[in-house]
Amino acid sequence: MDMHADKGREFWREVLGAGGPTAIPRWTAKPSQGTAVCETRVPDELVGGLRGLAGVLGVPVSSLWLAAHARVLAVLSGEDEVVTGWVPVGGGRGLPCRVAAGGGRSWRELVGDADRVASGVVGHREFPVEGLAEGSPRPGHVRPPRPPPPRPPAPQARSPRGRPKRSPARR
């Protein structure tokens, strides 16, 4: 057996163990399937600030973006650990990326963890992860919302002997 393939398989099984992409709530009247793309220009001042912060923390700017994205997903989904798609610097296919982004962690800790996660993903990007993901939702697939839990039955009025009282209409 190929030990490199075994390590890659184990790495991706751990990443995919969370069960697929993190679902976020929809705020539209008519939800639709699939994904959407929204592009926006990031102001030059912000880009400069991010580069400076990345230099201070000793990480690439992409780790700052991944940390911020994971934190937003954690807040929106209510989950402490999120799975999102991530495209390594330089391009290539999008890969699943699992980041622990909830709780009372500092931004410095979150950015450091995001950087370690991104490095792990890059180190295993050649493994054919698509075959392992067959049982999980497709990238971009939005899981339907869970139905609300059933309501408990309405309490019934009881007689002093513990029997349900009849309604006045039945008497």
UniProtKB/TrEMBL annotation:
Listed SUPFAM superfamilies: CoA-dependent acyltransferases
Region Disordered, annotated ranges: 128-171
Compositional bias per record (Pro residues), positions renumbered to this chain: 145-155
Regions of compositional bias (Basic residues) in chain numbering: 160-171
UniProt name for this protein: Condensation domain-containing protein
Native source organism of the sequence: Streptomyces tirandamycinicus
